């Protein structure tokens, strides 16, 4: 009985080589100009810096809120804060306080004497006062 050997087709190794070369080309293209490639590295670093800045600002805000909430701790109340809030709620003033009545709508002082003064003059009057 004669045995006939089949010769393997020549196109199978060529097709496999072509597929592997195409996949290697795709990986090379992605490494250079893909979403996370070398060309986009500057954009990624800039985005990271922006997010770090936002994170730092939010952390500072969180720390400020934690500090304010710690001042309201019933076990450790700040006496200055308690007197300030009590005076504000009761509408009373201390003898050493300087009060300037302000119109809520416009934000300007109500008294005619203070309207004529500019901010620098008010500051100089407050700085010159030795009782502060």
UniProtKB/TrEMBL annotation:
Cross-referenced InterPro entries: FtsL/DivIC (IPR007060)
Domain of life: Bacteria
Protein name: Septum formation initiator family protein
Organism: Devosia oryzisoli
